[in-house]
Amino acid sequence: MARQLIECVPNFSEGRDMNIIKQITNAIESVEGVKLLDVDPGKATNRTVVTFVGEPEPVVEAAYRAIAKASELIDMSKHQGEHPRMGATDVCPLVPVANITMEEVAEWAHKLGEKAGSSLDIPFYMYESAATSPERQNLATVRAGEYEALPEKLGKPEWKPDYGPASFNAKAGATAIGARDFLIAYNVNLNTTSVRRANSVAFDIREKGRIKREGGKLTGKPLLDENGEPQREDGMLKACKAIGWFIEEYGIAQISMNLTNIQVTPLHKAFEACTQSAGNRGLRVTGSELVGLVPKRVLIETGKYFLRKQRRSVGVSDKELIKIAVRTLGLDELGPFDPRKKVIEYMLEDENANPLLEMDLKTFADVTASESVAPGGGSVSAYVGALGISLGTMVANLSSHRRVWDSRWEEFGEIAEQGQAIKDELLRMVDEDTRSFNAIIDAVRMPKGTDAEKAIRKQAMQDATKYAIEVPFKVMELCTASFEVIRAMAEKGNPNSASDAGVGALCARAAIHGAFMNVQINCADVEDKDFVAEKLIAGQALADAADVEETEIRALVQKNIEG
Q1: Number of H helices, E strands in the chain
Q2: Distance (Å, whole) CA 295 – CA 100
Q3: Residue 242: left (phi > 0), alpha (psi -120 to 50), or beta?
Q4: Phi/psi zone of residue 234: left (φ > 0), alpha (ψ -120 to 50 degrees), beta?
Q5: What is the residue-wise DSSP string for 143-184?
Q6: What are the residues facing 291 on neighbouring strands?
Q7: Beta-strand (E) ranges in 27-101?
Q8: Are 115 and 64 in contact (CB under 8 A)?
Q9: How far is CA 55 from CA 7, 31, 110, in A?
Q10: Tell me: the pLDDT tens digits for 166-225?
């Protein structure tokens, strides 16, 4: 399963004492599996915004430790600052980054609330997507009256906390825990120095738009509604806040945006709206910049959007999609854009996590041919399978761009996209197979002096061996899925590339049989006979089906070759 990632952005009511801030961030970094991305203290607001990311369980643990540490160190009875606040940890939102739904993130937010509420003497309120009632979705409503209103507020039944006691904690105050979408700070560059013109574009696109005026003139009096409030003309984009400003460093005006819900208004939609509005006003968008980090999916979706506009296949690598996004948005206009420093998932990658994938072809072959027992047949099978689906994907992309098939670009593009997903998973299995073998070695080396140690070691060996079966079995399943793409390309893909589809089928069959050998040899060491029987029966069925698929696809290819 692909790694789930969430971001946590707690706001602490201390922005002046760096010793306190450091103790809080130390608590966060004490949890293995989280990475601290940013610490932004503000003296005037007396508030620090911290950003860290990781898989859900360690992130929740790090958030809990940070909340606990803040309640020890920060005294809200003495706090003063310009920003609204109600607690030592004022807000603690969880944000989906990769391979996780908002509903799942909300569940983790409640796990955090339950854990903190049961052990810390602090009232906790859930907000936004984690809210327990519609009235509590808006953070401003939850925080209304701020810290000073808590003694009275906590006595009202309608403001009973979701977790923790309904009693006033003078030192720690109260905390709002939420689940919300990722917020993107995004600036679009204009070929003007005029803030007024940049604001005109900003007012066109932002959700709240602009105030309606008499005669439609900028100097006209505001038109009022029945309540005496100014009427507004809605902007082009939902979930978008925007303003125009001048950046002296670059000598240009920009539209500065906060995109508060990228499901509603993704990056490419904001860029297109700015381009349209600017063009209508005689201006031109020259580029843009991302402030801070973004999830990889933001740039992947942008790359796919612009490829679809060109009627080209989106079934290309993530690297190519990101390159298209950077080039089209002009993200490198004001300075170099390095995805390794701007994409959250890349920031989290361990440079040594996938040693085999980082090798060139010659080194991979040399290491495989050495006296080392890993990489072995499992890793090679996964890589051979990746090559097989890569060939099928190549045929899909060539078919998508074939001049006489212009009307079928989307059909073939979807097949190529399917192939890319399988290829990426198979490549991940190349190093995963070696990791599973190393886990067995680690278990073998565990202490075995006492009976308890022997039992722990035995269980660790059994668990590791089962995983060493699961990995090649997953390779078998992925390669089986790859036949759908390869067969489709042998049947209806570019006839000039039919032989490539045939080679892809041969690779897929070889990978399945190679992976099955790894399943079989590891099954001999597993005591769970039901598990073994299940994998051997299912594995044999996949191997037999692969023989049939490969034979049929080769026949299709041969027919194509013979005309």
Answers
A1: 17, 13
A2: 12
A3: beta
A4: beta
A5: TTTTGGGHHHHTTSGGG--SBS-SS--TTTB-EEEEE-PPPE
A6: 185
A7: 34-42, 47-54, 89-98
A8: yes
A9: 9, 11, 16
A10: 999 999 999 999 999 988 989 999 999 999 999 999 999 999 998 877 776 666 777 777
Q: Cβ distance 117 to 161 under 8 Å?
A: yes
Q: Is 35 helix (H, G, I), strand (E, B) or coil?
A: strand
User: Which residues, at least 6 apart from 471, have a Cβ–Cβ distance to it below 8 Å?
Assistant: 378, 429, 432, 433, 436
Q: What is the 3-state secondary structure (H, E, C) of 504-527?
A: HHHHHHHHHHHHHHHHHHHHCCCC
CA proximity to 237, closest of 211, 186, 274, 212: 274
Identity at 183, one-letter amino acid code:
L
**Cα distance between residue 283 and residue 149, in whole Å:** 49
pLDDT tens digits, 15-44? 999 999 999 999 999 999 999 998 989 888
Rg (CA), the chain: 28
In the DSSP assignment, the letter for residue 90 is: E
Q: What is the pLDDT of residues 290-344, one digit of tens each?
A: 988 899 999 999 999 999 999 999 999 999 999 999 999 999 999 999 999 899 8
3-state SS, 351-417, equals CCCCCCCCCCHHHHHHHHCCCCCCCCHHHHHHHHHHHHHHHHHHHHHHHHCCHHHHHHHHHHHHHHH
Question: Residue 493 phi/psi, 5° resolution?
Answer: -80, 180
Residue tagged active-site, from 83, 332, 401, 424:
83
Distance CA 14, CA 155 (A): 27
How, if at all, do strands 89-98 and 5-8 pair?
antiparallel
Separation CA 518–CA 516 (nearest Å): 5
Q: And the tokens for 54?
A: 């990781």
Task: Indicate whether 230 pLDDT > 80.
Answer: no
Round to whole Å and give the CA distance between 77 and 74: 9
**Are residues 243 and 202 in contact, defined by beta-carbon separation less than 8 angstroms?**
yes
Cβ within 8 Å of residue 362, ≥6 positions away: none
- Write out the two tokens for 410: 């989307």
Catalytic annotation present for 83: yes
Contact 171, 150 (CB under 8 A): no
What ranges make up the beta strands (E) of 194-344? Answer: 210-211, 232-233, 240-247, 252-259, 285-291
- Written as six digits, the tokens of 108 are 């983790």
User: Residue 522: which of 473, 479, 474, 456 has the closest Cα?
Assistant: 473
**What is the band of 232 on the pLDDT scale with cuts at 50, 70, 90?**
confident
Which structural domains are found in the chain, ordered by start?
5-179 (3.30.990.10), 184-348 (3.30.70.670), 361-562 (1.20.120.680)
Structure tokens at 422: 């399988």
- Distance between CA atoms of 64 and 164, rounded to whole angstroms? 13
Q: At a CB cut-off of 8 Å and minimum separation 6, what does 482 contact?
A: 385, 388, 389, 392, 419, 422, 426, 504, 508
Cis peptide before 165 (omega within 30 of 0): no
Catalytic residue among 162, 204, 318, 433: 433
Residue 190, token pair as written in the block: 């204009």
